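INPUT
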Amino acid sequence: MDLVHWGWNSIREEEFSIFKEQGFCVGRIVSEHKHLYKVMTIHGELHAEVSGKIRHDGLVLERRDLFPAVGDWVLVKIIEHEKKAIIHGFLSRMSKLSRKVSGNKVYEQIVAANIDFVFLLSSLNNEFNERRLERGLVVSWDSGAQPVIVLTKADLCTDMAAKVAAAQRVARGVSVHIISSITHDGIESLSRYLRTGSTIALLGSSGVGKSTLVNCLMGEQAQRVNDIRQDDDKGRHTTTHRELMILPNGGLIIDTPGMREIQLWEASDGLNQTYQDIEEIALGCYYKDCLHRDEPRCAVKDAVFRGELDSDRFESYKKMQSEFADLSLKRSGHIRAVAKERGGQYAQLLQSQYSKKKKGRRTLK
Ligand SMILES: Nc1nc2c(ncn2[C@@H]2O[C@H](COP(=O)(O)OP(=O)(O)OP(=O)(O)O)[C@@H](O)[C@H]2O)c(=O)[nH]1
Ligand SMILES: [Zn+2]
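OUTPUT
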């Protein structure tokens, strides 16, 4: 098995060399289900579980970021006679698509790691929504990967020009592709991203056509099997299909269930990158830390008033700004609660997990 097709390169090799000396084998997570993994290694695909230490630190210390995600390069020790592997850690993440876990908990859930491009899918039929595209762009930029807007179901669209213009208004420098996975129109234009070893994650609401696009790109090799039941030595458990797949013409694609809902996790570059126009106008606000709400001499509100900035776009920006502020508050509350319940040491660990992402990122102003 040549891992180059799975995204392995000289930078990874260098990082791995020290672990190699320690007897570790390396592999890439191709699927995950309830902390049971499938890992692609030079020996082929193996079932894997995390080590007791990762499980302990991840669950007891609530360090969810220690669990590997689809796309991660993991360090494993292979148990020959059991045909399985134990994951002891992973190589640094070049990018990660994160969201908040559902419910009241304030944990980061990593849905895909080490991605080069996020294909942000939006269908060109009645579900088309500029505001949703904006949210998707914020999340995509925050991942550290390059977003690409893919407008699907072109064959069902009757007002193409208006919708494409709307998408381009939102895109601001991000490439927009118009495709139909049924007629194959526009599919060829995506080939520039599908280079050997480059990883693409698909992001988009249920029904936008993610699986159909995967099938289309996979061509005749398409083998999307639904969840299957498998017997193994430990009894029956559910395994999922592969979520990281190699495309026949090069490139890898990730399609996981976690990519249906676009949920914010942390304010960082994403908001700035998506709303560069607002950031530029805001340079003219009287107060340096203007939130463009009740402050006097606010250039952004003036621009909306003069009709130079779309008010819906501004509202969507403000809404996400509030959501991020709310998340930040919840995280602080959570850290305080953890400190009270378990002591300062655990709280510090949690704090470091939260602040790790902030490093090197621009704040709003
Ligand atoms: N006409 C047309 N239909 C499409 C196209 N792409 C997808 N569809 C249809 O849209 C429906 C949903 O497509 P899926 O590929 O299952 O959507 P999905 O994004 O994977 O949905 P989830 O798995 O729920 O997240 C299916 O009935 C597809 O046949 C397209 O380009 N044109
Ligand atoms: Zn302002």
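end of record. The pocket of guanosine-5'-triphosphate (ligand 1) is lined by residues 152-153, 155-156, 180-182, 204, 206-212, 260 (CB under 6 Å).
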